[in-house]
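Why show two proteins at once? Because comparison is the fastest way to build intuition. When a single record is shown, students tend to memorize it. When two are placed side by side, the eye starts asking what differs. So, the first record is below.
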Amino acid sequence: MKSIRSFLLARLLGGALAVLAVGAVVIYLQMTRALKAQYDQELGARLRGFASILFQFQDHVEFEFSQELMPEFDAVESGSKAEPDYFELRFDDGKLLERSDSLGEGSLATPSGLELDSEPVFWSAPLPDGRLGRFAAQKITVHHVRPEEGPGRPKARVVQIVLAHGRESLLQAERKLLAACLAGGGALLLLLFASASLAVRSGLAPARRLAATMDKIRIDQLPKNLDVGPLPHELAPVGDKLDALLKRTELAFQRERRSTADIAHELRTPISELLTLAEVALRSRDDERATREALVSVREIVWRMGCSVSTLLKLARIEMGAETFARSALDLGAIVEGCLRSSRLQAGERGLVIDCHLPAVGPVIGDEEVVRIIASNLLSNAVQYTPRGGTVRCKVEQAPQATNEAPSNIRWRLVVENPAENLEASDLRALTEPFWRKDGVRADREHAGLGLSLSRALAEACELALGFELKDGHLRATLEPRCATV
């Protein structure tokens, strides 16, 4: 469908044309039937006129026909273009009583089964001269002019009257009626086309207004709200969705601009450090120890920069859908226990206690690398930002199973909780933003602030729910399946 306007016009005019065609056919058939009925009534009246000039005297029947009064029954001269009428009167025994001069020596076809003194019978057939004609026939009883009483009274004669008249006038009237129906239908169709075009154009005006408004939007200056005026009920959801899309696009642009600024900031600091170390190494060329220390520091800075770039590339691949994930049966407790080995070393250096509870919940379905990265990031984040001497709690629990789930599907939840007194509820949305740090609490040079961002992207790609909750000064992070299976 290339055009809604063309589609609507085609359907409207097609429906109107069908209705008009059916209406014109019905009107034409009804009118032609009425014309034919009127035509037959005139023929019937002429039959009655013929019957009224038939008289019987004793056994003799007279037909008082006047050729001068009815010239349409005259004989036609050779080569003449006259269109005569015909009549024929016969007794019930078939003997000819009278016929028109136009008939000559010919005769008119008579239908069989005519009943005496019944209504006239009408039919269509060719006339003797080949024209299309309409016939009427009736069988009547001729009454005596001076009826005599008694047993010697002559029997009334029975005469059959047949009239034939050319159908030229009827056909001409039918053609005029057909032309009128076609002309009226064409005029109505033109009016319908004009009114339908105006109606469709007016109905699509809000869509054109919406398109014009969208066309004026600049990508670098997205409006806060899409102002297109009142929209009909059918377009209102489209306007609302476009408005929401613009808002999401603006948020994405803001996040992109913020990420670009954060990346520039993150790279500027280590680059400055590298330049400083390079200058120190150049000035201390004769001091082997100072040069070695500078190179070690350079290696550490480059390693951190490499980790940040690798994480950013992985985030980009996930967002583009280029990252693939495997699904297999996992031992969740073993994965978390493996992540805890490195976390315990960090916790010991900072005097932290890790309270771990890892009951067996059975095999779960998911991507082992994804679960390992997210669990490792959650534990590392908790250990890194827990105040010295604090406690980090980690547990795996089996969540309630939905009634419509298969028994083999195990619902699980990984919970990591740590003290975070300086965080606020408004900070929870920013926890998974790239490079985000809480001033004074979440600022350090060893972490770029990408771990939770990567965890969020991985969780969304693998249908996992990663949530954060702040309660009584403790940050509680949870990881669980978003649906029945991971």
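Second record. Ask yourself what differs from the first in the token line.
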Amino acid sequence: MPLKAITTVSSLLLSTALLLIGHGMQLTLVPLRASANGLSDLLIGVSASAYFLGFIVGCVAIPGAISRVGHIRIFAVLTALMTSAILAIEMLDDWRFLVLFRFVTGVAISSLYTAIESWLNDQATSETRGRILSIYNFILLMAMALGQALINVGPVSSPTPFTLAAVFLVLAIVPVGLTSKLAPAPVPPTQVSFRLLYQRSRSAFAGALLSGLVVGSFWSLGAVFAGNTSESQSDISWFISAAIIGGGLLQYPIGLLSDRMDRRKVLLLLCLGGTLTSIAVAASVGQSWHLASVFLFGATVMPIYAMSLATAADVSDVTEFVQIGTSVLMLNALGALLAPIALGQLMFVMGAPALFWSFSAICLVFMAFMALQLRQTRVVTVEEQVPFSASASEVAPASFDLDPRGPEQVEQAEQV
């Protein structure tokens, strides 16, 4: 990518990295603190669902607010709210406050993603848009993984790691606040159609839901599982990091494979992998190969979201991509909203390993559904598939304006 393209968005990317280091820390710290305070896995699951409910609300409600006050102001305000929420969670032990402030955090982070991604799209050109998306997704991975390592600066029962997370969140305001770049145009409202997504691709519909049920629950309850089966806080951070790194490193190779075969088959293989690796994680507790199984779990389940998005893009009209992509994202968030309550209750009744045994059962059910879809003729050939583009579920609908399968293809179609 030309140096000019990088410098154009350097301040925003730096703010994004700082923001996501703090966000990555709080994703693990909050459930660990709740567990240390004696809250049941069910209540921790309820608080996680409140987070994803806030995420959905933020995606739907924030475009209008950005249009009224601008990107820089909304970034500063939302970061302040998010910082206040994590500090309040650290100070207040009552589960009602936990649910409330996790909801606020969900609203804030999805809204911040919306502001960041729409800003990146405005600064990108048709030649650099796809590459900026790749850099953005790389920053998402690296910053959140670094956040896992930093939770070990102090015991989870102390204010130290929460304070450090808050410091990173506040620092994220500085590069954006000092930028001389003009803020972009208003963000268009979010458009969602689950019906359209289901009509275009049942496999993509199922994959998006599966990703939310499994990956969303992992973000919500994975640290609780690790806390109940590990001996130290460092073990917990390694547990979460192993899954993140596995999902990040294997997404591109799996994507390249999917460019050469029917993506529905790749989704089927990922479901099979999710089934087997979930069993391995549950069965390997206390074994030397436990982290390897967690790495493989992340490698098989975390790419499901991007694969579902690519599968939907294959069979969608180019003018539909933003709406289809938003529907994939929101269905993923809906699954992440619903699953933690049920799985938290299972963990409360049956113990921590029930989380990964449940993941295995869920992946097995969706694998059977994917197998049924392979019996139907696909409307596009492998040669007609669009090139795979890495995507993360930790984004907002504005990211689809960055994707080369969206506006750039529309521009190309208009030129033909």
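One difference worth noting in the second protein: The chain has 17 helices and no strands.
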